[in-house]
Each structure stands twice: as structure tokens, then as C-alpha cells.
Amino acid sequence: MARHIPHSSSYPQSVAEVHRALTSEQYWRDRLAEVGGPGASFGHLTVADGTVDVEVAQAIPAEHLPSIVTKIRPGDLVITRTETWGPLDGDRARGTFTARVEGVPATLSGALTLSADGTGSTVALDGQVEVKLPLIGGKIEGVIADQVTELLENEDRFTAEWLGSHT
Predict the structure, then answer these.
(1) In 3-state terms, what secondary structure has residue 150?
(2) 165 C-beta neighbours (distance < 10 Å), count
(3) 112, exposed or middle or buried, with CB in 10 Å at 0-12, 13-18, 19+?
(4) d(CA 109, CA 98)
(5) Cα 38 to the chain's mean position, in Å?
(6) How far apart are CA 75 and CA 72, in angstroms?
(7) Regarding beta strands 92-101 and 77-85, do their DSSP bridges make them parallel or antiparallel, or are they unpaired?
(8) What domains are defined for the chain?
(9) Which Pfam family, any one, appears in the UniProt record (predicted)?
(10) Which residues have C-beta within 8 Å of that of residue 67, sequence separation ≥ 6?
(11) Which DSSP helix (H) or strand (E) runs through 153?
(12) 160-167 long-range contacts, Cβ below 8 Å, gap at least 24?
């Protein structure tokens, strides 16, 4: 059974300013350099006409993983994520994300929404993680959901700082 991952972050900048960042090649290069972790890399990064399609590979070091994960998948946990953002449509933009975990039958997916929030904006993620392993899949889903949430919070902090210095 899949585990739901709800997450949102608010910014004082307008929807247009946040969208401009999310669809900027420099934003993604800076974000990967700052919060990507050791060995993080791009699979691809395509920016065109107010849209973006980006794939990044990031690793969670084995020493930060609980034993239940390292028993089924020794070593660092490599996660490959794809994120897309569509064009700005009034005061809203929509996107998607997917992720796969190397060596673990796990998938993550969901929807992204950028919308107005008073004079600022909010980026909301509505996702889920599913691990197809009998008996222990639910526990691993919880670990992955926690790690993803921590990563999203780090990315939120980076985005707030980046927006503050680039808008």
C-alpha cells in the first residue's frame, strides 16, 4: 500500500517570480550544487518556453539509512528524480515528479502546483511512495517518505534563499 507524501512551501515572491526560478537553468544548476549531495548529477535539464524537464540523481549515504534498508540494499541509496513544470497559466503552474530508487522496488510520483497565496505564492506537492516488498514494504515506504520530506525541506530553504537573491 502506498504512503501519501503531502508537502508545501510558501514564498513571499509572486507566482511569476517563483515560476521564472523553477524554469531557469541557473536555478537548477545552483540547487543541485547546493543541496544535491555528494555525486549528484543531471540526467538531463531542458528549459524551453517557460517550461522545464529535469532529471537528477542523488545519493543518501548508507550511514544515514536505517538497517532495514541497508539489509535489502547495501550501500548508498541512489534516487533518480524527474521533475517537470509547465507554463504559467494565469496565477498557476502545474508540474509532475517521479523518482525511482536504485536496487529497491520503490516508486515515487505525484503532482506539483504553484499558486498564488495572498501577495506571495505556494508550491504544493501531492505525492506517494510505494515499495513492493512483502511484509517490510510499509516500513521502507516510511523511511523513504521521511528522507524525501527532509530533502524537500532542504530544497525549500535553498529556493527561499535563491529567490531572495535573484528576484
Answers:
(1) helix
(2) 7
(3) buried
(4) 4
(5) 17
(6) 10
(7) antiparallel
(8) 3-166 (3.30.530.20)
(9) DUF2505
(10) none
(11) helix 137-166
(12) 160/9, 160/11, 162/21, 162/27, 162/30, 162/31, 163/11, 163/13, 163/17, 163/18, 163/21, 166/21, 166/26, 166/27, 167/13, 167/17, 167/20, 167/21
**Cell digits of residue 14:** 509572486
Single-letter amino acid, residue 142: G
Neighbours of 107 (CB within 10 A): 16
Give the cell for residue 157. 530553504
Place of cell 548508507: 62
pLDDT (tens digit per residue) in 89-119:
999 999 999 999 888 888 999 999 999 999 9
The pLDDT tens digits of the residues spanning 56-83 come to: 998 888 887 778 777 877 888 788 999 9
